[in-house]
Amino acid sequence: MNTHNRLRHPLEREALRCRLFEGPDGIDGYAIHARDAAPDSVRIAGRALRVGWVSDAAFAPVDPEITAAVAAAANQLAGFGCEVEEVTLPFIANAFGALATLVYGEIVPSIKILAAGRENELHTVGAGVVALSDPSFADFAAAHVEAERLRSAFAGFFEKYDVLLTPVNPMTAPPHALQELTVNGVTVPWTHVMAATSPFNLAGLPALSVPYAFSSEQLPIGIQLVGRWLDEATLLRLGAMIERKGGLGDRRPPL
């Protein structure tokens, strides 16, 4: 029997694809290079997945319809047999500020070099980026300290829980180019759109956005699943279960 015939079964093909994506590609300096790296799980065999969920308590203000979708997803996970509990995450603090300092501190100098002599050709966004001042050493060091503090806090969180359930965005899609947004009656800067994703980018945690519902204005609402480091498999499994039996039901885009 040849290899093609042996891999006809969908599960076999999926296993092959997973193996092809495992390990470093030799390009990404931030990749984990050990092929046998695995999550540091404290999960007891046979025990239900422990899920903590949060919305307004960590990312306020949040659109009430989005909070309702997160709460519905939490109830659905409980129906799947998970142990589900609402949490607060008081250690989130200003993750976006630290993330912005680190990201811009690393990429802006390179962009300025590439754009030198062609500044008049830049899009408005690009022009704004090259106009930024480089962060001070003290600010850059403080951002790294904040990232370490956040990683330490999440390490403690994932000793008690296996998965964190949150919104993806605190609001549905806003109109283009707004500098301020009104969310649940509160005026916030446009950067608030990243309030529920920045902490996990800063801490380097795997996170999965799952389509879940539609707002009263027929705008899409997603929920976010976050797991411990290297535990993408748990998120993909839960995400698939939610997507198959979630708030979207059998709704499909028109073709």
Summarize this structure as a short list of keywords or feature phrases:
five-stranded mixed sheet, Amidase signature (AS) enzymes, 255 residues, globular, alpha/beta
Could you explain how this protein is built, in words?
This protein has 255 residues and is α/β, with parallel strands linked by helices. It has one domain (43-244): Alpha-Beta Complex (Amidase signature (AS) enzymes), CATH 3.90.1300.10. Helices cover 42% and strands 15% of the residues. The protein is built from nine helices and seven strands. The strands form two sheets. It has a five-stranded mixed beta sheet, with helices on one face. A two-stranded antiparallel sheet has the order 4-5. β4 (180-183) and β5 (186-189) form a beta hairpin. The longest helix has 24 residues, at 137-160. The protein is globular. The chain starts with a helix and ends in an 11-residue tail after the last helix.
SSE map:
Layout lengths: L2 H4 L3 H12 L28 E4 L2 H4 L4 H16 L3 E4 L8 H21 L8 H7 L6 H24 L2 E5 L12 E4 L2 E4 L8 H6 L3 E8 L5 E8 L4 H13 L11
Parallel strand pairs: 1-2, 1-3
Antiparallel strand pairs: 3-7, 4-5, 6-7
Helix pairs in contact: 5-7
